[in-house]
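Researcher: Sequence recovery benchmark, item below. Answer with residues only.
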């Protein structure tokens, strides 16, 4: 099969972790005789530095013409503490989501046996936890009307959702639940927010169409608590953009490290696969960042963008083997810590020899 990828390393540790994922992608493509073609594109702070904007049209065209996008991370501290900056790396990510129509961000939360002791939660609470968080990605407060008034002394951001946006993400949630353990948790703040009340209203309309699925409604504050108290009670969770952003960072640490969780952003045009963590600027260039989340994002890329399940599984097996053999970076190492590039090489080698 012909696989045409756009590769967007981005900022901070992005280039290093994407390098490792590409080693796995190349090894798998070779093994299964796929014809791999890829091209790099600029995004984030590096794109601002080079061409003045964080998601240049050229990068967008590259993504539109690819079968799938592998993305690293964006963000640079030089913008974080400057609220007056008019161009920001994050705008690039938001623009990419909007222009590619990436309305659903799928974030699977799985635990690894060899890492349970690294979880901030007790083993018995987290062992076997396995759920999927589906975050709406192109609506809500991230994209609503925003601005300043009263000479700049009043600021507002608006959370807006349309029926169509809510229906399509809930439908995806139900489809995931049908393929899994048939439980859907709709997370909102319907006791306060009108947009949440529309979510809940629509979910209540749709629920009877999926009689095999148990629909559960949960307020976001309660959900934040339940994730750390009873993570095993979740199967598929669906929620709006900002709630999903916050809850999935929380969910990621229960697995033992933020460096482990991949994601797939799917929607109308080309899908994007990226780790859920950020650009970790303090570690950039040091060859210490954990590449696993990005390598697992490459596994999702094979599975979701090309329906190549065996290829995805081989990458997952290689990752599991590296953890079992303790070939891991310093964030999760017990004894010897391996470099980012060494973990990438080990995994690619495992794939080649499998
Ligand atoms: C994420 C990130 C982004 C978001 C930032 C970098 C804009 O935190 O992908 O979760 O908030 O969506
Ligand atoms: Mn986030």
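Model:
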């Amino acid at each position: 099969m012909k696989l045409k990828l756009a590769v967007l390393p981005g900022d901070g540790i992005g280039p290093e972790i994407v390098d490792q994922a590409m080693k796995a992608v190349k090894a798998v493509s070779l093994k299964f005789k796929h014809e791999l073609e890829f091209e790099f594109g600029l995004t984030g702070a590096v794109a601002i530095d080079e061409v003045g904007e964080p998601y240049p049209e050229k990068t967008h065209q590259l993504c539109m013409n690819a079968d799938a996008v592998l993305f690293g991370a964006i963000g640079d501290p030089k913008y974080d503490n400057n609220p007056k900056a008019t161009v920001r790396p994050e705008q690039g990510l938001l623009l990419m989501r909007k222009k590619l129509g990436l309305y659903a961000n799928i974030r699977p939360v799985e635990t690894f046996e060899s890492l349970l002791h690294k979880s901030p939660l007790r083993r018995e609470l987290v062992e076997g936890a396995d759920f999927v968080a589906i975050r709406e990605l192109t609506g809500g407060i991230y994209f609503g009307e925003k601005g300043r008034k009263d000479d700049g002394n009043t600021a507002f951001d608006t959370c807006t959702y349309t029926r169509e946006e809510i229906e399509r993400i809930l439908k995806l949630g139900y489809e995931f639940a049908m393929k899994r353990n048939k439980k859907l948790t709709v997370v909102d703040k319907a006791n306060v927010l009108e947009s949440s009340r529309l979510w809940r209203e629509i979910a209540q309309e749709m629920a009877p169409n999926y009689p095999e699925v148990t629909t559960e409604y949960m307020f976001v504050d309660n959900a934040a608590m339940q994730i750390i108290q009873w993570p095993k009670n979740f199967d598929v969770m669906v929620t709006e953009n900002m709630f999903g952003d916050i809850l999935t960072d929380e969910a990621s640490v229960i697995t033992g490290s933020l460096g482990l969780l991949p994601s797939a952003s799917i929607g109308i045009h080309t899908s994007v696969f990226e780790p859920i963590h950020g650009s970790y600027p303090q570690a950039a260039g040091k060859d210490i960042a954990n590449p696993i989340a990005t390598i697992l994002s490459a596994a999702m890329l094979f599975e979701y963008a090309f329906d190549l399940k065996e290829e995805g599984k081989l990458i997952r097996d290689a990752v599991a083997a590296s953890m079992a053999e303790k070939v891991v970076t310093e964030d999760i190492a017990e004894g010897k810590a391996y470099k980012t590039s060494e973990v990438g090489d080990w995994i690619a080698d495992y794939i080649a020899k499998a």
